[in-house]
Structures are given as structure tokens and as C-alpha cells.
Amino acid sequence: MVSIADCGLMLEPQQAMSVQEIVDWGVYAEQNEYGYILRSDHLLPIWDNKERDSPECWSSLGVLAAKTNKIKFGPLVSPIGFRNPGLLARMACNLNDYTHGRFLLGVGAGWYEEEYLAFGFDYPSFKIRYNQFIESLKIIRPLIDGKPVDFQGEYYRARTRCYPKSKVPLIIGGRNPKMMRVIAEYADEWNVYNHRITDFKELKSSLDKSRSGRKIQISRMGPFVIAENQNQLEQKIAKNGELYKARFDSPLNLDEIRKRGVLCGTVDEFTSQLKDFSNAGIEKFYFQILDPHDREMVNLLTSTLKDL
Question: Is residue 141 within 8 Å of residue 151, measured between CB atoms?
Fold first, then answer.
């Protein structure tokens, strides 16, 4: 069974959040013995009202680096289309060196067309974005391992190394067998999003066939709902109905939320769900905070994890 040190808070809020609030959550996580504080890397809020504040990820990570002392942190995940992969690796190595090895680098191919276009980035087809992602990994992986790279591809090229030499863990997410082969070759950690156990086991089997004995940690990220009792649980879901409506495209009741793989229940039910996923092979849990102002529910999550 996991401990709170194997867990993290994931900041991807649907309500406005300032850089100071991001730092406050990082300090909260560190003081309460979480192992990780993670940030989504989006240039626009991904749901509902686009006029909300959504601080740029990497500048806020720099502030987190300076304001925390022991908690591990990083983006989950940074789309390759926003930054040159060689530069991205150098940024990661610098933050990792400054924090004495506390940085985690999560990368992805990108999927949110609206933010690309809003900031003037090209948004090619999935096939091209996938090929760009593979090329970027051929650059990023050696650089964050402290090795030189000499690569000339169709989309990217690099002939350099990162100083100071650094070893930065690489996180890649994925939901299909094709991506499992990429994860098996390049990743130190595979992150799954909001999967049901049956779906997770099927993908894990695909990864096990591809990784050839390589040690790859497995983490799970997704939203959560926890309450002291059934009545409070249903009240919590009803109160936050608009959040779940924006996140899942429709209003959800308790049964529907669970069907979609969300960790949701009373304290005992929630603990049982964590145990089931842990027994299935999940080694870390990153809890996605949809409402950064609901400190009460996060406090209950924290006390529950401390009692495991």
C-alpha cells in the first residue's frame, strides 16, 4: 500500500489561480509530507471560462523551486509543441541542479488545439505531432541523462549537451499499446490518467511485454472526491456539479463519476479503491485538484493518506 510520500497534488484548476496560490499549495504539500507537487502545462484554461488566470507553468515551477526545500515537482506534462526539446531539457537540468535532484520532467505530444492557435503555434495532425514527439525524445533523453546529443531529424535537430550534467526522471503518459512501446524505450515513469482498473491492467500487460526488464515506475493521476460519509459525499458532488460538468461534458451523479474511473467515496471506500489500484501495480498517486479553494476536501484526503 502507498504512503503519503508516494502521493502528490496535481494543480489543474478550473477556477482562477495565481502564482502565489500555486506556491501556497506547494508549501502545503511539503509541510504535509506529500512526495510531489505537479502542475499542468497549459497556456489557456482547458475547461469552460477562458478568461480565468492560468499562470505559465515553467515560470511558476521556478518559484516553486525557490520556495520549497524537499518536495519533488515538475510539469505533468509539457507539450513538445511549446518549446524546442533541447531548450526544454536544459531548463529541466537547471531546475534539477538548483533543487539538488528534486525535478521531474513530464512531456507529451500536446492535444489542446485552442491554446496552440491562441499563442501562434502550429497545430499539425496527430501523426505529425506523434513523430515530433518521438524526435524530441531522441534529444531530451540523452540530455537529461548527462550525455551529449547529435541528432538531425525532420522536425528537430540538436548537437549539444546540458551543463551542469544532470539526471532528470522522465515521465510519459499513454493510453494505447503504440505509446506503450515509446514508454518502454524512453520513460522512467509511466503516468496513467483516470483509468479504471480493468483498462489499466490491459495496458500494463502491453507495457510489460515491451519494456524488456527496464524498471519503469507507474503512477496514476486524476480528479478525486472524498467525504466523511455518504450524505456529505453526495452533497460534495452536487455542490461541485458545474466543475464535473465542465470536466466530463455532462452533469454527473455518484455512480457515473465512478464509472469514469474517478477515485470517489467515503474515507473507507476511498482507501479501498487506493488499495485495489496499488495491488494492481500503481506505485504513485497524483490527486488532481479541480477546485483550489476546496481546502476542506484536500485536508480530508491528507489525513486519510497519513492514516494508511
Answer: no
